[in-house]
Amino acid sequence: MKLFDVSVPLSEATPTFPGDPRFDIDAVRRMARGDSVNVSALHLGTHSGTHIDAPRHFFDSGPGVDGLPLDVLIGRARVIEIPGPRRGIEARDLAGADLPGETRVLLKTGNSALWQSSEFRKDFAFLAESGARLLLDRGIRLVGIDYLSIEQFNKEGAPVHHLLLERGVVIVEGLNLSGVPAGAYDMYCLPLDIAGADGAPARVVLRELN
Q: Could you say which DSSP state residue 49 is in?
């Protein structure tokens, strides 16, 4: 049984979406200074690194991350590789994917190579509206992608987020799928249980199926 940790480690070098808080960790108590324990204070955004978008991210009346169903966050997921230049993922790119019976899809693109830099890149691959509609039509309940947004950078109105979140589809952003072959896996995706939050960092692990 092989496990893949597809989470991005949080550090001061982790890229941050423009306008979001940067990750920072401060020493509060340190044994080296004579304290009895080591304790740190974290400063980060709800959409830092690998994270979940809850419906409340775009809908004030939508459920927060603590209201997301665990049976969507844990279960079989299919990694679909989209080769070629980073661009919008259209319906035609997903039409041939092996999706019957699948409810969770993780999109592996050239974005995974971008984690080697601490600088945010605007030219990341994203899910286009036609691709989002196809996944909805196929009954997908969770969609993940390997950079900090599933939406084209600065796309007016954020139509893909609205399409997915208003239908209750969980969005997982900030995955690193560089070492994961396309195929089916068991997925364990557990965001921090923050009451009412619009999103939360998550640890995401994939397990090879026997």
A: S
**pTM score > 0.90 for this model?**
yes
Q: What does the pLDDT read at residue 210?
A: 74
Maximum Cα–Cα distance across the chain: 62
pLDDT tens-digit readout, 157-168: 999 999 999 999
The total of structural domains in the chain comes to 1
CA distances from 199 to 65, 86, 99, 117, 203 (A): 6, 25, 27, 24, 13
Q: Which domain holds residue 121?
A: 45-208
Would residue 47 show up in a list of annotated catalytic residues for this protein? no
Domain contains 165: yes
* Residue 16 placed within a domain: no
Tell me how far apart the alpha carbons of residues 60 and 109 are, in angstroms, rounded to a whole number.
31
Q: Model confidence over 27-62: pLDDT tens digits?
A: 999 999 999 999 999 999 999 999 999 999 999 999
Residue 201 CA to residue 49 CA, distance in Å, equals 7
Q: What is the CA radius of gyration of the chain?
A: 17
Query: For position 99, what pLDDT does the model report?
Result: 87
Residue 106: which of 1, 206, 9, 201 has the closest Cα?
206
172, 6 Cβ separation under 8 angstroms = no
- Give me the catalytic one of 47, 51, 57, 161: 57
